[in-house]
Amino acid sequence: MNAFKTNDSKREEFRKYLEKAGVMDALTRVLVGLYEEPEKPNNALDFLRQNLNATGPETADVEALKLEVTELRQKCEQLQEENNDLKARLQQLEPTAEPDNPDN
Of 2, 30, 75, 80, which has the fewest beta carbons less than 10 angstroms from its beta carbon? Predict the structure, then answer.
């Protein structure tokens, strides 16, 4: 009987922790949203993930950042190629060190 009370008290403590952290409210809000959806999504778990992540970055922000990263990578590659070309041209234009020739 004591083990039963210990488990109940642990559950109650955990429930209070979840309530205090706002987890219960967030889960309830998302589950109610899912319940009220006129057309239920094919993947309920994805729906929960998307709606629980409401405080995370906006999808549009993430997409804009991905696009910016792609553009910056392309620019970096372009600049690296330009740098390599300029180094090659510089080597061609620099006078080469000629060994001392006593005949001249």
Answer: 2
Residue 63: C-alpha distances to residues 46, 76, 79 (Å): 19, 20, 24
In whole angstroms, what is the distance from residue 95 CA to residue 76 CA? 30
Q: How far apart are CA 3 and CA 7, in angstroms?
A: 6
This prediction's pTM: 0.44
DSSP state of 55: G
Q: Are 52 and 30 in contact (CB under 8 A)?
A: yes
Q: What is the DSSP track for 4-18?
A: HHHHHHHHHHHHHHH
pLDDT tens digits, 25-80: 989 999 999 999 999 999 999 888 888 876 566 677 888 999 999 999 999 999 99
